[in-house]
Amino acid sequence: MSEGDPRAPDVGIYEVSPRDGLQNEDEFVSTEAKLELIALLTASGLRRVEVASFVSPSWIPQLADADELVSVLRRSPGVRYGALVPNEKGYERLRAAGPIDVVGTFVSASETHNQKNVNCSIAEQLARLAPVFERSRADGIAVRAYVSTVCGCPYEGEVAVRAVVDLSRELIERGAAEVSLGDTIGVGHPNQVRELVGAVASEVSIERIALHLHDTYGRALANAQAGFEGGVRIFDTSLAGLGGCPYAPGASGNVATEDLVDLFEREGIRTGVDLDALVDASAWLERDVLGRRLPGRVFRARLGERERERRAL
Ligand code: HMG
Ligand code: MG
């Protein structure tokens, strides 16, 4: 959609269920089912989807099929596909696998979570990422940089706003197109998110700031609204509220895509995404793939509505 198009969305959604969602499942989901999930997501109108993770397969076995998945990915026109990369080896795997439009790097704002997640200090992780930034620039691939534990760390507790601001600025200076501020364990609250976004936006332009909100305390949607009011226009979401970081104890799923789309559309904020198609995708994932009850609230509510309508027929 071009600028000025009356149907152009007001916010951009970065869908992370194939990566953040499935990395946290107990069972390995087949490559074929992952591909189907990605196809359903893009068919709903989502335009950016994180589909894989080129991390160590012994650390995240659920996504060990990243190479194969990307090599056979059926791309939809107008969709940008992303994947996580922790180091140069991950970048090499990504490039060998097939075309990916967005390289997702990640580093935590707290030392202990970074150590647990990538087995090195923040400074060492930034050094490991240097060739990823360089090679992405040379190859013309956008880098999206996650900053994790921005609202709190599962090991250290409070995280200084200054640490988040400094890391965000540094990642942009290194060439990231955007930074995604990750409330990894979902402990943030609206005032905190407002303050954090304001602080980061004083050093990084607001169009480059995304929010990646986990929903552990049920505040992710309120935090997204606070972020929107603070000027953020990019939100990471996950179908039916799947997600979590295996190296952050207590972390639960991301804000559900259906919940964010429903809230924003009701507030007159266009998302460009078809809620019914998302509900169909979640119903399929729940019934045919994961075989367990998925948490998304709007998903559950819409399923209930459908059931009542069916019975009334
Ligand atoms: P390490 O063990 O310290 O790595 O792990 P190493 O460099 O010492 O290498 C050890 C072995 O791993 C070697 O193999 C390497 O080749 C291999 P060996 O010689 O023993 O046969 N290796 C790799 N293999 C495949 N792909 C690679 C790779 N790199 C090394 N890329 C490492 C360091 C970073 C690899 C590991 O700690 C790791 O993979 N961590 C990933 C953890 C993870 O994926 N966490 C979840 C994603 S982050 C997240 O969810 C947060 C986010 O959603 C935002 C938010 O919510 O805040 C993004
Ligand atoms: Mg996450």
* CATH fold category name: TIM Barrel
Number of β-strand runs = 8
Supply the CATH class.
Alpha Beta
Q: What's the CATH architecture?
A: Alpha-Beta Barrel
Bound ions, cofactors and other small molecules, one mention each: 3-hydroxy-3-methylglutaryl-coenzyme A, magnesium ion
- How much strand? 5-15%
Cα-atom radius of gyration: 18 Å
Give the tally of structural domains.
1
State mean pLDDT (0 to 100 scale): 96
Q: Which oligomeric form is depicted?
A: single chain
Number of helices: 12
Topology:
Blueprint: E1 12-15, H1 17-23, H2 31-43, E2 48-53, H3 66-72, E3 80-84, H4 88-97, E4 102-108, H5 111-118, H6 122-139, E5 142-148, H7 161-173, E6 178-183, H8 190-201, E7 209-213, H9 220-229, E8 234-237, H10 257-266, H11 275-290, H12 297-312
Parallel strand pairs: 1-2, 1-8, 2-3, 3-4, 4-5, 5-6, 6-7, 7-8
Helix pairs in contact: 2-11, 3-4, 7-8, 8-9, 11-12
Write up this protein.
Strand 2, helix 3 and strand 3 form a beta-alpha-beta unit. The mean pLDDT is 96. Strands 1-2-3-4-5-6-7-8 form an eight-stranded parallel barrel, surrounded by nine helices. Helix 8 (190-201) runs parallel beside helix 9. By secondary structure, it is of the alpha/beta class. It is built from twelve helices and eight strands. The protein has helices spanning 17-23, 31-43, 66-72, 88-97, 111-118, 122-139, 161-173, 190-201, 220-229, 257-266, 275-290, 297-312, and strands at residues 12-15, 48-53, 80-84, 102-108, 142-148, 178-183, 209-213, 234-237. The chain has one domain: Aldolase class I (TIM Barrel, Alpha-Beta Barrel). The protein is globular. Residues 20, 23, 53-56, 59-60, 84, 86-87, 89-90, 93, 106, 117-119, 146, 148, 182, 184, 212, 214, 245, 247 line the site of 3-hydroxy-3-methylglutaryl-coenzyme A (HMG).
